[in-house]
Amino acid sequence: MKDQTAEMPPETLEGWYALHQIFRIDRERNMPAGNVDSDVFGRREGNDGWSEAVTLIGSTSDVMFMHFRPTLDAIGEVQRELASQPWMRRLEPTYSFLSVTEAGLYHMTAKLAEEAVARGGAPGDAEHVAAVKAKAATEVDNPYVRRRLYPQRPEAMPYVSFYPMSKRRAVGQNWYSLPIAERSRLMHEHGLSGRRYAGRVQQVISGAIGFDAWEWGVTLFAGDPLDFKKIVSELRFDVASAEYGEFGPFYVGKAGTLAEVLGG
Questions:
Q1: Are 240 and 194 in contact (CB under 8 A)?
Q2: Residues of the domain holding 26
Q3: Residues 6 or more apart whose Cβ sits within 8 Å of residue 62
Q4: N or C: which end of the chain has fewer CB within 10 A?
Q5: CATH no. for residue 90?
Q6: What CA–CA distance (Å, rounded) separates 67 from 16?
């Protein structure tokens, strides 16, 4: 008999929309006269989100802009505001990544599915759906979850690393065909590795399924860039990454003022 808890998507909670924009500076074009500035990069308080400008190092591109906003429309407003700036004519887009901050509730999904089967019901029945909604509502108020959904700009962590990733769907190595309980176990192990870097690396996970060819974006902040190498190396030895992880390009740099990042 088919396992009713297999091949279930994990419940997720979503927070701010995120846009990562990558540019190359056209150095043949002179920077327009006047101040290089934009309200987009002013520090924001409360629930409005924030933006950061990053000088890329060791990349074929030069600049990364990161934007976190409460709605997709607000992300669109950021794009239009920046596109109207004279200094943007010097920037040539090379890559962009649209996503939304996400907390994957693997353990909760697996536990409630098992409970549904144990009582003689099935995942997706009315009682199960009600239990999922109730539990998800309590998770939203968890301070740890809220920090993941509404990440604040970290202090004393000017270095940034961003990369997209997906889960493998190869024959015999298909993440999406694993039972939810097994995916929950693997993600718990993966999370424990990342938590060893608490206070040294701040991690923002954003979901991009339906928004991009890659399925997730990972944004890391650190005070010491060597911590990027250490945490990514360690995480890749977890089965969730070693057997099922696919990784895109890495963009690494240092946050600064807009004038510093654009060089004028």
A1: no
A2: 15-101
A3: 23, 24, 25, 55, 56
A4: N
A5: 3.30.70.1030
A6: 9
Question: What single DSSP character describes residue 180?
Answer: H
Other C-beta atoms within 10 Å of 171: how many? Answer: 6
40: region left, alpha or beta (phi > 0 left; psi from -120 to 50 alpha): alpha
In whole angstroms, give the CA distance from residue 116 to residue 226: 45
* Triad 193, 199, 200: Cα angle to 5°: 75
Question: Is residue 208 in some structural domain?
Answer: no
Is there a domain that residue 23 lies in? yes
Task: Please compute Rg for the chain using Cα positions.
Answer: 20
pLDDT mean values, one per 10 residues, the chain (264 residues): 66 96 89 75 79 96 97 97 93 97 91 89 89 89 93 93 96 90 90 87 97 97 97 92 94 95 80
Structural domains counted in the chain: 1
Would you say 225 and 55 are in contact if contact means Cβ atoms under 8 Å apart? no
Q: Which two tokens stand for residue 51?
A: 């933006």
131 within domain boundaries? no
Determine the Cα–Cα distance for residues 131 and 229; give it in Å rounded to an integer: 40
The H-or-E segment that residue 140 falls in is: helix 126-140
